[in-house]
Amino acid sequence: MKVDLTDKAAAVTGSTGGIGHAIARGLAEAGASVLINGRSQHRVDGALDALKRAVPGADVRGVTADVSTSQGCARLLDAVPAVDILVNNAGIYQPKDFFEITDDDWTRFFQSNVMSGVRLSRGYLPACWSAIGVELFSFLRNQRCTSLRK
Predict the structure, then answer these.
(1) Which residue from 64, 65, 34 is spatially nearest to 52, judged by alpha carbons?
(2) At what angle do helices 18-29 and 41-54 cross, to 10 degrees?
(3) Domain around 139
(4) Which of 9, 32, 91, 104 is the most buried (most CB within 10 A)?
């Protein structure tokens, strides 16, 4: 199936490697302008270089921001105030026995895996809501997907 996302802007959090980078690549291959996001400038730069090599001519840019914090989400929203496609892929886990996970660990997991998606969806949804035919997909680390349509 050929998907044409020409003239669409996409932001993919946690996209310097793994699933997030693969999603960013697929969006770029479909013609979308893609924003790569990660917590370190070095990783963002590396992901941008890899994406430009994989998809010659792709319109890609990067923003370094830790979206597990409200300040990081604000930084991303300030850098790119509107998108047509948002993929909330950022998330963390720690293989640890349930009884060894501290309250601080749970808070850190929640901020990264849940609140990052909440904050960015809340920031981008109003513009998406007013656009016709635009959907907002939120992929949280627990692999659930929500599609919101006006």
Answers:
(1) 34
(2) 40
(3) 9-148
(4) 32
How many structural domains compose the chain?
1
Q: Read out DSSP for 40-103?
A: -HHHHHHHHHHHHHHSTT--EEEEE--TTSHHHHHHHHHH----SEEE----------GGG--H
> Is 3 a domain residue?
no
Tokens of 135: 């959907």
Q: What is the CATH number of the domain that holds 67?
A: 3.40.50.720
What token pair was written down for 71? 């300040």
| pLDDT recorded at residue 142 | 40
Whole-model pTM?
A: 0.84
pLDDT in tens, 79-125: 999 999 999 999 998 899 999 999 999 999 999 999 999 999 999 88
